[in-house]
Amino acid sequence: MREQIDLHHEAAKTSGARITFSSGFDSIPFDLGVLMLQHEAVARHGSPAPRVKGRVRAMQGTFSGGTAASLTATMKAAAKNPGIIKVLNDPFGLAPGFDGPDQPSGMIPHYEDELGKWAAPFIMATINTKNVHRTNFLRGHPYGEDFRYDEMMLTSPGEAGKAAANAVTEMLKNPFGAKPPKPGEGPSKDERENGYYDVLFVGEWPDGKRLHYGVKGKYDPGYGSTSRMLAEAAPKSTDRALVIESGTGYLAELLRPLVASVDTLDASELARGKSKLKDFDLVLVDGALGDVPKSLVKTLAENGRVVSGIIDGDIPRLAVGRRTGDRIAFDMVDDTALPALPMFAQAKEWSF
Predict the structure, then answer these.
(1) Sign of torsion, CA 321 258 225 31?
(2) pLDDT tens digits for range 49-107
(3) How far apart are CA 346 and CA 293, in angstroms?
(4) Do residues 152 and 110 make contact, with C-beta atoms less than 8 angstroms apart?
(5) In this structure, which of 8, 25, 57, 116 has its CB flanked by the most CB atoms within 10 Å?
(6) How far, in Å, CA of 97 to CA of 91, rounded?
(7) E strands in 100-204
């Protein structure tokens, strides 16, 4: 990744092309988890959290032969080129020219008092943490230049949790075992469909404030979930995009490099139905709707796409829709932690 950044970043910046790395389990849930926690941090506390912990609470998945081969190739390349080792050991290895504060290593098992569980090293942390720091770097450090971040995996309380954390640490010395899968081998259909992950992000401030944000996904993290992310992450360079926002501007800035143009509209303005903005190819709603207003339909061009949270019963779900005539047809994608937008609360119903 760093080699490709060094080779192509300036040309891509000049031409408007986008070089997109790590668009799967490494590192979308972690990168967006931190982004959304900081979004909520600014909304609640007026400032981003200078310290964030990523903690994998649960995960079910397995490796493929391609993953094993990629890691083996990386290690061989590092043995021949000491520069690669330097990048691998540098938390800011994907942020050329930036030298940030010391980072937590995440490599030593320890007991986390606040969460009441032992924490062990997490196999994806080396790449995920670099991608999170790269996002902060590319966006002008909205998390702060003093931002500190690490990722670990939670086990359980007590001596059993300590033993499990130590066992994970030993396993990571040889993650694929004596017989790694061959290229082309990987999890079965049942294994992919029964996989999942659950990640907790903890934001901390020096004065003791804390904020928790959770990200969950269905299916095998590396394959089933990754394929869904790649399918949904489809903004086009030709899109005129509109972000319905609730005050922070984070989502619009994240989208801006990926599309032709971005306009923003406060959710309260959409609720009043007075906006003249219309005919957008893509609309993102930064929150969950109880009722879908007619004013949202008017913002879209015919066959335009919208991604929004939708309150389904009492559960917020991520939904993708398209405009057809005077309506939007939505497909539910997954559960989401997007906050409900109160101005679009579903009308209360009652009956005798």
Answers:
(1) negative
(2) 999 999 999 988 877 776 777 777 777 777 788 788 888 889 999 999 999 999 999 99
(3) 10
(4) no
(5) 25
(6) 12
(7) 110-112, 117-121, 148-154, 196-204
Residue 102 burial (CB count, 10 A): 7
pLDDT at residue 48 above 90?
yes
For residues 122 and 152, is the Cβ–Cβ distance under 8 A?
Answer: yes
Q: Which residues contact 334 (CB under 8 A, 6 or more apart)?
A: 217, 218, 228, 317, 318
Q: Count CB atoms within 10 A of the CB of residue 341.
A: 22
Does residue 285 share a domain with residue 192? no
Is residue 351 domain-resident?
no
How many CA atoms lie less than 13 Å away from 289 in the CB half-sphere?
23
Determine which of 62-71, 135-144, 147-156, 252-261 has the lowest per-residue pLDDT on average.
62-71
Backbone angles phi, psi at 328, to 5 degrees: -115, 125
Domain's final residue, options 232, 260, 284: 232
pTM summary value: 0.69
Residue whose token pair is 């109880």: 290
Where does residue 57 rank: exposed (0-12), middle (13-18), buried (19+ CB within 10 A)?
A: middle
Q: Which amino acid is at 305?
A: R
Compute the distance between CA of residue 155 and CA of residue 113 in angstroms, rounded to an integer.
13
E strands, 186-234, are 196-204, 210-218
Give the tens place of pLDDT for each residue, 215-245. 888 777 766 655 654 455 478 889 999 999 8
Q: Looking at residue 308, which CATH number applies to its domain?
A: 3.40.50.150
Q: Which two tokens stand for residue 163?
A: 């033993």
Measured between alpha carbons, how far is 286 from 243 in angstroms, rounded to an integer? 7
Query: Is position 264 within any domain?
Result: yes
Domain final residue, candidates 178, 206, 232: 232
Domain total of the chain: 2
Q: Which residues pair with 68 in a beta bridge?
A: none
Angle at 9 between CA 15 and CA 49, to 5 degrees: 115
Q: Do the Cβ atoms of 308 and 334 come closer than 8 Å?
A: no
Per the structure, the complete domain to which residue 134 belongs is given by: 2-232
Q: Are strands 148-154 and 117-121 parallel, antiparallel or unpaired?
A: antiparallel
